[in-house]
Amino acid sequence: MNHPAPRHAFCLPAPVSTTSCSQSAFVKTLLTPPSPLTSTDLTTSVPSTRRCKLTAKQATNTDTSNKPSPFDNLNTDTDADIMLSPSSPQQKEADDLVLREVLALETNLARYTALMQLLSTDRSRFFRIAQSNLSVVLPIIYTPVVGEACQNFAQLDIPKRGTWLNPWEHQGKILSTLKAQLSANTPNVDVVVVSDCQRILGLGDLGANGMPIPVGKLLLYSAAGGIDPARTLPVVLDVGCDVDSVRDDPDYKGVRKPRVDPDTYDAFVDEFMRAIAEMYGKQCFVQFEDFGNANAARLLTKYRENFLSFNDDIQGTAAVGLAGILAALNIPDVEGDLSKHSFLFLGAGSAGIGIADLIAQMLVSQYGMQLEEARRKCWFIDSKGLVYRGRNARLTKEKEAYAHELPAELQNSNVSDMDLTATINALKPSGLIGVSTQKGSFNEQVFAAMTKHNAKPIVFALSNPTSKAECTAEQAYNYSNGNIVFASGSPFDPVTLGDKTFIPGQGNNCYIFPGLGLGVSLAAATVVDDAMVLAAARKLASLVARDRLNSGCVYPKIDDLLSISAHVAKAVWEEAERSGVAGKSGIDVTVDDIRDAMYEPGRVRLSGY
Ligand SMILES: O=C([O-])CC(=O)C(=O)O
Ligand SMILES: [Mg+2]
């Protein structure tokens, strides 16, 4: 077995300061964390034990002050194992064995089940294994296997995790329910991930069975973002389910009713947001996950100004999508100037619109374009065909912004009859972004059209899980003869064509949300604004090493996620300061400081995977 990798041995191109925790200014800059605007007495009752949980290097820190540090809201875990760093050889061997046993199980669901059982019996071991083997463990606890876990949730033999709230039982009593259920176990929470499960990945409405999504996202917050797992809370708002086969399953644990009417729904979500702020303070970060498209966009607009909230499927996907595009600009044969690109989106849901909005914002803030002009760089195809100005079918407000005047040569053609290939031939985009959940929609003709108009087009098949991806990596490279920059939402293996091996980037939200949430927490930010999301995207793009780009990969290594999250967190914190929304500012904190403060119950590197 290999020895564990040294802590900062990753090959990230961005400069990493070597300032140790004991030397850095932040340790000496003792700050009082801002008190939450609204909190119960529990919120402030947890003693700060962060310092005594640090690694050996920091244990020698001569600064013995007990005054709060910027990291006081991280790692108040009382788990004794956290002290064990680096892990003992015996512990590493035992962890190695456990992971091998998990991986030897026959099905993905069996592996998922085993890991969830490990999580509840030995949390430190679970996170040691996860953090040391991110690229192996993530696909099991998160996309794509988490989709299967949701689809089979009623039958899964896993320990209960997370909180379900439903309007029939809990309307008017969410706060008291949370207090009764949670205050002993989770006296303080930094991050909540909430879903109403109306659109689980690309799998549709799964009702109360969607709990593995908030659970999985929060496991990543800890495994990849260093947020103490004891300070995270997964929630499903069980507001009913409109799919009979889900509701009628004899083992279904949710409420067997159709989704509630819009007024009840809005009142319930409102009450939930207020209850979380009341219970954990306004600085508790609430991530919305897998809501239906209409509610996702609406709730983001409704809450983003007044609550520390974030929609991962819109803002997280947007940041990851844009980061992949920005990184692609550094690949030979790809036009390096973003303003010269244009993009066609297959699918006009909140994810695609979110990416386009962020591209437009980048063009406005970095290239000085007018918003209208910037938006004209992005075209959409929805279920009724190309979105354009004057189309008969009604358009939502979000799509309206991308309903452009048709180019002159199309004005007399029957646009509604154009398929994807014909649309590419007409618009000649340099980038094609799949957010449609239509498996197989990027076929050979589509790649032929993209490569006909571009030396090296950008093609991202972002739909999740793997079964919904617009194409596989193998198809993408084969159909284009390797002449594309490809990325996908779910993981694909490298593909070899002749003497070249391509590494398909996994344009997955896990590159952004753990670091963004960490940065927001550290900054004690009051809101997440677009500039912070943009900063996260730009930072991520800057972390892709040249050798990855040379293999066609526009994202850094998943195994480097802890370090990536620290970089993203710092960028987000700095941007929050610039935007004037940081509760903590003027602090000289290095990426290493952040990295050292992240939850990490030990490291062990498993060889051979
Ligand atoms: O979970 C993922 O991999 C990305 C995501 O949020 C989604 O597809 O809804
Ligand atoms: Mg999602």
UniProtKB/TrEMBL annotation:
(S)-malate binds at residues 199, 464, 508. A divalent metal cation binds at residues 289-290, 313. SMART domains: malic (SM01274), Malic_M (SM00919). PROSITE patterns: MALIC_ENZYMES (PS00331), PROKAR_LIPOPROTEIN (PS51257). Its cofactor is Mg(2+); Mn(2+). The keyword Transferase does not apply. One of its GO terms (biological process) is malate metabolic process. Residues 119-304 form the Malic enzyme N-terminal domain. Residues 37-73 are annotated as: Disordered. InterPro entries: Aminoacid_DH-like_N_sf, Malic_enzyme_CS, Malic_N_dom, Malic_N_dom_sf, Malic_NAD-bd, Malic_OxRdtase, NAD(P)-bd_dom_sf. Residues 37-49 have a biased composition (Low complexity). Residues 57-73 have a biased composition (Polar residues). GO terms for molecular function: malate dehydrogenase (decarboxylating) (NADP+) activity; metal ion binding; NAD binding. Residues 314-577 form the Malic enzyme NAD-binding domain. The active site is at 142 (proton donor), 217 (proton acceptor). Divalent metal cations. Prefers magnesium or manganese. Keywords: Metal-binding, Oxidoreductase. Belongs to the malic enzymes family. This is Malic enzyme.
